[in-house]
Amino acid sequence: MNLESLRRRLSSDEINALPLCHYEGPIHLVRSLEDWEKALPDLAREQVLGFDTETRPSFRKGRLNTPSLVQLATGRAVYLVQLSWWPFGPELAGLLADPGVIKAGVAIGDDMRELGRLYPFTPAGTVDLGMVARAHQLTTQGLRTLAANLFGQRISKGPQCSNWSVPELSKRQVIYAATDAWIGRAIYLRMRELGMTGEAA
C-alpha cells in the first residue's frame, strides 16, 4: 500500500460492495466513577486512544444538543462513557487534556469543543484523522471512507442518527459506537505505519 493508491476516490457503490466490519472485542459501559476507576488501568497503559462522541440529533432549527456518549478505544477494549449517567467532569477531562496520550478521531476538534460546553478544559494530544488525510492529498477524509481506503472494509453508519441520550443503549448502538472509536484508532496506527503522522511507527 502506498499513498498514491490511497489518493483514488472510492465511489459509493465501491464502498457499499466492501465487506461490512464491526468491533468484536470487549465493550465496557462507564456509568459511574467506580466504572471509570475500573477502566483507568487499561486507559493509562495506552499511548493512542481511538476517540469519538455521539450526540442526540436535533430536528429543530437552531437547537444543538450536547454530547451524550464518549467513546474511547484501547488496543484491548472500548469504553463507552454514558454522560446521562455520569456527567462529563474533571476525571474524563483530565485524560482528554493529557498531551502524553494521543486521542485520534475525525473532526475531533468539534467534539472537544462541544464537551467543553459541559465542563471547561483545554484539549491536548488530539489528532484529526481528516486533517492528516487532507495534508497528504487523500480524497477520503471521513471515518467510513478512510476505513474503506485503508482496510478495504465498510463500517455501518445505520444508528448514527438514533437517540444517544436514552438510559439503555440498544445492542446496535453499542456496537456502532464502539466500532467508530476502534476504527479511528486503527486508522491512526495505519497512517503512522505509512509515515503520515510525522512520528515513527
UniProtKB/TrEMBL annotation:
CDD domains: WRN_exo
3'-5' exonuclease domain segment(s): 30-196
Coiled coil spans: none
Molecular function terms from GO: 3'-5' exonuclease activity; helicase activity; nucleic acid binding
Keywords: ATP-binding, Helicase, Hydrolase, Nucleotide-binding
Sequence intervals crossing the membrane: none
SUPFAM superfamilies assigned: Ribonuclease H-like
BP-aspect Gene Ontology terms: nucleobase-containing compound metabolic process
InterPro entries: 3'-5'_exonuclease_dom (IPR002562), Exonuclease_MUT-7-like (IPR052408), RNaseH-like_sf (IPR012337), RNaseH_sf (IPR036397)
Superkingdom, natural source: Bacteria
Name this polypeptide is given: Werner syndrome helicase homolog
Organismal lineage: Bacteria, Pseudomonadati, Thermodesulfobacteriota, Desulfovibrionia, Desulfovibrionales
